Amino acid sequence: MKIFISLITLLICTGAVFSQQTISGKVTDTKNNPIEGANIYLEGTYDGASSDANGNFSFETIEEGLQTLIVSMLSYESHYEAGDISYFKDLHIKLMESVNSLSGVTLTAGTFEAGDNSKVSVLKPLDIVTTAGAAGDFVAALQTLPGTTTVNEDGRLFVRGGTAGETQVFIDGLRVFQPFNATPNNTPTRGRFSPFLFKGISFSTGGYSAEYGQALSSVLLLNTTDVPLQEETNISIMSVGGGIGHTEIWGDQSLSINTSYMNLAPYEALIPSTQGVRWNSPYESISGEAVFRSRGEKSMFKLYTGFNHTNLDIEQEDINFDDYVRFRLKNNNLYFNSSYKYFFANDWSLTSGASIAWDTNDIGMEEDKVDNKETSTHLKVKARKNFSNRYDLSFGAEYFNTHFDETYTDADMDAFNNGYADGLWAAFAESDIFLTNKFAMKLGVRATHSSLLDDFEVSPRVSLAYKPGEDGQFSLAYGDFYQRPISDVVKFDQNLEMEKASHYILNYQYINNGKTFRTELYYKDYDRLINFDTETPQFNSVYANTGEGYAKGIDVFWRDSKSVENLDYWFSYSFLDTERDYQNFPERATPNFAPKHNVSLVTKYWVDKLRSQVGLSYSYGSGRPYHNPNNPGFMEERTKSYNNLSFNWAYLIDQQKILYFSVSNLLSIDNVSNYQYTNTPDVNGVYNGRAVTPPADSFFFIGFFWTISTDGNSNQLDNL
What residues does the TonB-dependent receptor plug domain cover (predicted)? Predict the structure, then answer.
C-alpha cells in the first residue's frame, strides 16, 4: 500500500512539473526606455515577478486557460493583458505615464482662474475686495487683468474688442440675466453681487467651454461657497451706506444672508457742477442676498437669491438742449438660482439647476416715460462620467425662456407697445482627454435653436495643451460662438439670425514659486453683426445681419508675491487691434470702447509695524476713437489717454475689526470718454462739440468692517 501511495504522489508531482508555464517579456515606456521595478503578476494569484534593469521579467506558474496579466508601476498607468496563458511569452509591454492632477498639463487657453484651490489661479478671491480702486466690485478687480478694457463711463466688462453685451455671467453654472445695477447714461455701474459669497471665479476672455453659450466674447463664472468655514456676523459702516451679514451652520446645512443700503448723497454733493450733472434725488440702492446650502453624503444642494432696488433722479447736460435733460429711474430686480449635484457610483455625477429673474424699469426722460419688464428663466441638466484620470465626458441640455414687454408713452400720452418672447434650446457635449502628463485636449460641440429667430446653429470647440517642462505650458484653442441680437433690436424685428464670432487663441503660461507669467495671442472673426439705418434702434429702422469685423491682439500678465518680502503685485498689458461694421456705422471702424493699449499695475504691501496694508493701482488706456463731423473720415479722432491712480489703506484694529480707506482717481484727472456734437451745424457750418467726462471717475470710500465669530476664531488678517 505504501508503495502504491508513493507512486501516485510521484505521478502528481511529475504532472505538476510538466504543466508549469513560463511567462516572460519586457516592460518599457512609450519611448522604448526599459522600466526597472515594475510589478508583473497574474490576477488572483501569488505568481509574479519584477522587471530588472533592462525591463525584462520571467516567472513560472501552474495556472492554465484564460488569465489576466497585470503590470503596474508607480507614476504609470496599470496595464492589463487578457488571454490564454500560453500566449504570455516574449511580451513587449509599453506603460503609459499616469496623469498627475498636481503636476500634469492643464487646459487654460482663454481662462483666468481665481480660487484658492486652483493650481492655475492668477487671482485669489480676496483680491476682489482688496484691490485699490475696485471698492469691493468684482468687475472692477477683473479690469486689472489683460484682455479687458476700462470703459469708465460704463463699468461693465468689455473684452477683446467686444461690447459689454457680449460677456455673460453665470452663478453655479446658471445664467444671470441682469448682473449689473441700473444707472443713468454716462455713469458707471457695479455688479449686483457680494464677492464674499463666492469661493472662486473663472473668467474666460475667449475660447470658453461648450457648456456655455450666448456670448460672443467672454463668460464670467461665479461659484458660491459649498461649505462656510465658520459661523460669523459681518458689520460694515461706510461713508455712503452700510451693511450686515450673517452665516449660520447646523450640521451639514448652512445659511448666509447679506443686506446693504447705499446712498450716494455725500459723494454726489462733492461732484462739481462743471461735470454737467445735477441731482434731484441721490442714487439710492437697497439690496439683499441669501445662500442656503445642504450637503448630503453624495449630494450638494444650493439655493441662491438676490434682490436689488435702485432709485435716482438726475439732470444731465446735453449740447443739443438749452437746459439740462432730466432722467428718472426706478429699477427692481429679483433673482433665484438653485442647483443640485449628485455623485453616483462608477464616477458618474448629475447636475441640475434652474434660475429665474424678474427685472422692471420705470424710466422718465423729460416728459416721456418708458416702462419695461423682463422675465427670464434658465433650466439645465448635465451628466459627467470620469472613465479614468485620462478621459472624462460631460453632456447635457438647457432651455432659456425670455419674455420682454415695453411701453413707451410720449408727452402727448400716446402709448406704443413692443416686446418679444423667445424659447432657446441648447445641447452640448464635451470631453477632456489627457494623453500624457504633457499633452491634453478638450473636444466639444454645442447646438442651439431659437424659436424667436427660427435659427439653428452648431458650434465646435477645441482646446489643446502641451507642457514641455515642469512649470510652463502652451495652449491652443478654437471655437465658434453665437448670440441672439440684443433686446433693443429683437423687440422691433425678429426676422434676423444669430450673430457669430470665431476665436483663435495661442497661450503660454508659467507658474513657479509665487510667480506667474502668462501671454496670449488671439484673433476673433465677427460675422452677421446687426446693422440698422438710424442713429439708435427704432421701430421703423431697417435691420440686417450684414455687419462684420475682427479683433486681434496680445495679452501679457505677470504676478510676483515672493521676490520682495510683504509685497504682492501684478502687471497687465493688452494690445488690441479691432475694427467692425455694425449698428449704424457707415463703414468698418474701431468703436469708441476699444483703445489700442491698456496697462494695469496693482501693488499690495503689508507694513507689519503699522498693522496695515497699503495698496496702489494704476490704470492706463491709450486714446479712444471718436467721430468728429467737422473732419473727413469716420471715427478717426482720438481722445486723450486714460489715467487713473487709486489708493487704499486697511488698518487691522484687532483680529475682528478693519478700518478701510480708499480713493479712486487720486489725482482727480478728468478722463474724457468721448465728444458730443450738435445735431446741426452753426451759421459757419461748424458742428460745436464738448468733451464727455463721466461724473463718477473720482470716488472716496471710508469703511469699518467688524466680523463677529461665534467660535472666536475670526481673523481679519486673512482678509488682507
Answer: 119-214
Chain center to CA of 60: 58
Report residue 65's pLDDT band, with 50, 70 and 90 as the boundaries.
Answer: confident
Classify burial at 660, counting beta carbons within 10 Å of its beta carbon; exposed 0-12, middle 13-18, buried 19 or more: buried
36: amino acid identity, one letter:
E
Query: Using H for helix, E for strand and C for coil, what is the string for 641-694?
Result: CEEEEEEEEEEEEECCEEEEEEEECCCCCCCCCEEEECCCCCCCCCCCEEEECC
Q: Are 470 and 437 in contact (CB under 8 A)?
A: no
How far is 568 from 563, CA to CA, in rounded Å? 9
Return the sign of the alpha-carbon dihedral for residues 139, 141, 147, 151: positive
Beta pairing, strands 91-95 & 111-115:
unpaired
Q: Are strands 39-42 and 66-72 parallel, antiparallel or unpaired?
A: antiparallel
Q: How many CB atoms lie within 10 A of CB 347?
A: 12
How much of the chain exceeds pLDDT 70, in percent? 87
The alpha-helical segments, DSSP class H, found in 407-515 are: 487-490
Could you report the per-residue pLDDT of 133-143, keeping only the tens digit for each?
776 677 778 88
Strands of the sheet with 218-224, listed across from one edge: 121-123, 111-115, 198-204, 218-224, 167-171, 174-176
Q: What angle do CA 476, 477, 478 make, to 5 degrees?
A: 140
pLDDT at 136: 66
Task: Output the furthest CA–CA distance in the chain (Å, rounded).
Answer: 137
Q: How many CA atoms lie within 13 A of 254 on its CB side?
A: 19
pLDDT at site 670:
83
Grid cell of 324 as nine digits: 439740462
Cα–Cα dist 438/217, whole Å: 29
**pTM as predicted:** 0.83
Contact 328, 337 (CB under 8 A): no
DSSP 51: -
**Residue 79, helix vs strand vs coil:** strand
Report whether 179 contacts 191 (CB < 8 A): yes
Residues in the chain: 720
pLDDT in tens, 632-687: 889 999 999 999 998 888 888 877 777 878 888 888 888 888 898 988 888 888 98
HSE-CB at 105 with a 13 A cutoff on CA atoms is: 28
Confidence of residue 204 (pLDDT cuts 50, 70, 90): confident
Q: Are strands 79-84 and 472-483 parallel, antiparallel or unpaired?
A: unpaired
Q: In the numeric block, which cell numbers belong to residue 713?
A: 476664531
Task: Look up residue 669 and give its three cell numbers.
Answer: 484727472
Residue in 714, 673, 677, 680 with CA at minimum distance from that of residue 696: 673
Over the Cα atoms of the chain, what is R_g?
Answer: 31
- Report yes or no: 372 and 405 within 8 Å, Cβ to Cβ: yes
Looking at residue 535, the DSSP 8-state letter turns out to be S
CA 556 and chain centroid, separation: 18
User: At which residue does the C-alpha cell 416728459 appear?
Assistant: 367
Q: Which residues of 215-235 are buried (b: 16+ CB within 10 A; e: fewer)?
A: bbbbbbbbbbbeebeebbbbe
Task: Please give the grid coordinates belonging to residue 635.
Answer: 471715427
